[in-house]
Amino acid sequence: MLGDEGDSGAYSAAKDEEKRASPAADGDESAAGNRYPEQHGMGSERYYIPNTVSKQNPEASFFPYTPGGAVYSPPGAARYPSSLHLSTVLPPAGYSPSAHFSPSYQHGQNLGCLYPPYTGSGSALSNVTLGGGAGPGLRAQVYLCNRPLWLKFHRHQTEMIITKQGRRMFPFLSFNIAGLNVASHYNVFVEVVLADPNHWRFQGGKWVTCGKADNSSQGNKVYIHPESPNTGAHWMRQEISFSKLKLTNNKGTNHNTSQMIVLQSLHKYQPRLHIVEVSEDGVEDLNSDVKTQCFTFPETQFIAVTAYQNTDITQLKIDHNPFAKGFRDNYDSMYTAPESDRLTPSPNDSPRAHQIVPGTRYTMQPLFQDQFVNNLPQNRFYNCERAVPQTNGLLSAPTEDGVSQRWFVASVQQGGSGGVSAGSKLDLTPYEGEYSGSLLPYGIKSLSMQTTHSLGYYPDSPFTAVSAGWGSRAAYQRKMPPSLPWSPRPSPAAGFSEELGKAKAQTDEEVHSGEALISSWTEGQASALSPNKPESYSVTCKRQRLSLNGPSADIKCEDLSSSGSYSKEAPPTKGMASYYSFYANP
DNA sequence: CTTTTCACAGTCGCGCGGATGGGA
DNA sequence: TCCCATCCGCGCGACTGTGAAAAG
């Protein structure tokens, strides 16, 4: 199927209109690949358009943001005008970005960018109609659920492995959506586009541009969520995870194309989320361009590689990806080994350049800093990350940190359920933000709902996440009570406006009370992290992980058991219980 | 020299089938 | 004794990063 995409650039609108039905609706994989064919052939031409702050659509997203990262408007992109407004919005008073939900940078329905053949006029702004809140299915709000994790990778320039067979993304894309019409049907899909016109290479410990990007990009660039089409209620009810999305460099692949996105190595890409309102049978409304929406999260930018270049990224993957658990046994060295031992020269601002100070290792002092996004065992906290400037030569540190540090107090979004304390406990979960997002604003929903695309390794539910990630066996997981009584969650937007003032008032108090809560919670969590191997936390063996100077040298480790703040006697279920009770009783 | 491919070992989820226990 | 549900262990497959070899 991909083989015939070479001429996709010449794909006509008429041809496209012949098959307007959603591939997800008819299950036709080839259709999935061709569903938005213009995206394939144009891959290299349709660079990610910079987000320019626009006041045209002040309610489309949540806070003003100008991506500081590399975004590019190609010289010859007349058909994708750089004047496209990725509408951003002034925040409600007192609103700050959540640490867990990243407001998206909505493309203001700039459908000209996404569906040129559909729009007729092709005007980028022709669909920025957004006729008020009454419009059915419009003005969706999208939140990046695992944003803390994305940010963590983004600081080091995220890399994604691509293989012939296809490699899953990690972190994967996971969203919560609000503002859809509960009765309308939508297709939800992710598109990956070039983020800039450059070819990149890793040199001297950092990514540098190296010539122009290959413009002959072919292959599928779209991954349609397997549950598409579905109702707005369905999409809003649960976290929408794209964990099964695979990245490949195999243009000739002719199977699993619906699950694979074809990329080119050493190119920088930007994933984008699309929500398209369709009829009940999955067919798009030919006259409803306004029913398509696009969302971009700059922190999800990544460079496709066939092998990891930056060991910081490698270590982050090992630390956070459950599939890479087998490589975690010696990761302690990453936080104690001298910087000179690192395989990859890193900027001196790397968080790991800062040694752990035993005295502070267990303190909760940095609770509202980086350990919010740190799922490492408590005895491996390094508390300097956010305290030092993050500049790796690629990222716009001020912007990046400016965003990440304005971490929102969760209570703004979820009413009385916990503010910072809620956010804290979520970020301390083993999978960080992987599912934290599902907890934060819609906690009851997330606790109760088992998504139909249950992820196994990447659970949607905090329950499954806890059981799967903390050593419980599948049988145990399956026997979990399926759900608490679920009640439809309020839309985030409503929650924002209604709870904003109250949450703001609660913030300070929760900052303080949350610390104690977190402290008690992490106690249980730390024990749950390694229910079967408590010694791994009582004795940390610091082995050299990455060294150019021969075999790994085992470094005798200090016994940390005496200073640990966790209770290694606590069984995993206790940890989970504490997790639940903590969450349920803020 | 850089980049890609491949085999490998490790972890984990899942499905299968046998063993076990309770109720009819 | 039979039936059913549950538990448990095993094996398979999916998935990960590693490191060497191959390719460009």
From TrEMBL:
GO terms for biological process: CD8-positive, alpha-beta T cell differentiation involved in immune response; endodermal cell fate specification; mesoderm formation; positive regulation of DNA-templated transcription. Residues 144-329 form the T-box domain. The keyword GTP-binding does not apply. Transmembrane segments: none annotated. One of its GO terms (molecular function) is DNA-binding transcription factor activity, RNA polymerase II-specific. Keywords: DNA-binding, Nucleus, Transcription, Transcription regulation. Its main location: nucleus. The keyword Nucleus applies. InterPro entries: p53-like_TF_DNA-bd_sf (IPR008967), T-box_assoc (IPR032385), T-box_DNA-bd (IPR046360), T-box_sf (IPR036960), TF_T-box (IPR001699), TF_T-box_CS (IPR018186). It is found in: Nucleus. One of its GO terms (cellular component) is chromatin. Residues 1-43 are annotated as: Disordered. Signal peptide: none annotated. Gene3D superfamilies: Transcription factor, T-box. Pfam families: T-box (PF00907), T-box_assoc (PF16176). This is Eomesodermin. It comes from Austrofundulus limnaeus. The gene is LOC106514232.
